Amino acid sequence: MNKQSSNTAAALPVLFGFFVMGFCDVVGISTTYMQERFELSEWAAGFIPSMVFFWFLLFSVPSAGLMNRIGRKNTVQISNLITIIGMFLPLFFAQSLLAYVIAFVLLGIGNTILQVSLNPLLTNVVRGEALTSSLTVGQVVKAVSSFSGPLIAAAAATQMGNWMYIFPIYAGITVLSSLWLLLKKIPAEAPVTHSTSMKATFALLKDKQILLLFLGIVFVVGTDVGMNTVTPKLLIERVGLDTASAGIGSSVYFLSRTAGAFLGAILLRKMHEMKYYKVHLLLTIPVMIGLFMTQSQTGILIGVGLMGYAISSIFPIIYSKAIQARPEKANELSGLMITGVFGGAVVPPIMGAMANVLGNQSGSLMVISAAVLYLIVLGFGIRQTSK
After folding, report:
1. From residue 284, how far is each of 28, 137, 271, 299 by CA, in Å?
2. Which CATH superfamily is domain 9-186+196-379 in?
3. Maximum separation of any 2 CA atoms in the chain, in Å
4. 3-state class of 190 per DSSP?
5. How is the chain split into domains, by residue range?
6. What is the mean pLDDT of the chain?
7. How far apart are CA 138 and CA 316, in angstroms?
């Protein structure tokens, strides 16, 4: 077996881990189901995604420190164990709101550790110019998982009698991912001979470029989670669909994001990453205007589909630019950048508050538009590097 095929074989279980990473996106359609099941207000429902994404603020940097001590692969396995435990909880306490909250908390903690450790683990088997496109392939896998979530939830609701059966299904998939990674030999990274404090990690934000990229992660994740959350609500509010049917909006969003990430993995091998970034972000301007105006199901689905496509490869571009800026701080930067996923906890409550103020989901779209505006400005502020 030649070196390239060996690296490809080693990369497969790592890339499959991105499927587990996509589980956090089920919180979008779950918010709609839980809001209906437990009769939650818009404002209260807005905090459900926070149960997943809040932990990126607290655990990302400590996870980077843990990764320095025990290695990237072992850190990924710890994240899998936490996810498995969390996904089994609703199976035993299906009538308890607290059980769902704890499940989402554990999903968030597990996902935080996974995102901090899995991206650097991929660099153990993929290096150099192939990193950005390989990270984008990982986002394709994650997007497939995100796309599947609403469909699995709808199938569980209609065929199994309760949408919550998606959780034990996710637990089983995580077990398979953990076993595959356990059985596959992954080249180990060079041992880290120093420990990094949270203060030292956050001190990287003194670099203006790193700060801008960090905020980019905050707003791209906020946009992604925001679109995931608002899409079913737009279909319910403007078209009158029921909760199960409205899940089609999330599936269209993630299907388009999957297609965009797949295409991005190809184009980023041939096209300068920042040119790609700017073209796709400028596409969001007419899309957001259209979403404010349209009242039809077709118009909404086209809008959210284009939005999913437009931002599909933005996260890996921002992430890879940060790693390229300070490669000697890859572990610390991974923890720092993944802390920015906390944007998924910040944006939805603000959306809920704005929706309450205006009395409709246009308030939510205003918040998403502000996040997108920052990403557009960022694209013209990042220093250019040669391809």
Report:
1. 20, 22, 20, 15
2. MFS general substrate transporter like domains (1.20.1250.20)
3. 62
4. coil
5. 9-186+196-379
6. 84
7. 9
- Give the span between the Cα atoms of 363 and 307, in whole angstroms: 17
Query: Which of 117, 325, 137 minimizes the C-alpha distance to 213?
Result: 325
Give the type of residue at 243. T
Which 3 state secondary structure label does DSSP give 240?
coil
> In this model, does residue 377 exceed pLDDT 50?
yes
Number of H helices, E strands in the chain: 18, 0
The model's pTM is 0.75
pLDDT band at 175 (very low <50, low <70, confident <90, very high): very high
Kindly give, in sequence order, each residue whose CB lies less than 8 Å from that of residue 283, ignoring residues fewer than 6 positions away. Answer: 306, 309, 310
Rounded to an integer, the average pLDDT of 245-268 is 83
d(CA 195, CA 66): 9
What pLDDT was estimated at residue 316?
83
Tell me the C-alpha distance between 242 and 353, whole Å.
23
Amino acid at 138: G
C-alpha span between 311 and 38 (Å, rounded):
32
The residue-averaged pLDDT of 146-171 equals: 85
Cβ–Cβ < 8 Å for 283, 261: no
Q: Dihedral, CA atoms, 353, 257, 311, 209, nearest 10 degrees?
A: 110
Burial string for 311-323 (b: 16+ CB within 10 Å, else e) reads: bbbbbbbbbbbbb
**Separation between Cα atoms, residue 31 and residue 39, nearest integer Å:** 11
Residue 309, classed as helix, strand or coil, is: helix
Of 1-5, 251-255, 256-260, 323-327, the poorest mean pLDDT is in: 1-5
- Amino acid in position 105: V
Residue labelled with tokens 């404002």: 43
pLDDT over 90 (residue 169): yes
Task: For residue 187, give both structure tokens.
Answer: 């080249």
Say which residues have a Cβ less than 8 Å from residue 293's Cβ, sequence separation at least 6: none
CA gyration radius, the chain: 20
To 5 degrees, how large is the angle CA 14–CA 20–CA 23?
A: 155
pLDDT digits (tens, 9 = 90+) for 202-212: 888 888 889 99
Residue 387 reports pLDDT greater than 50? no
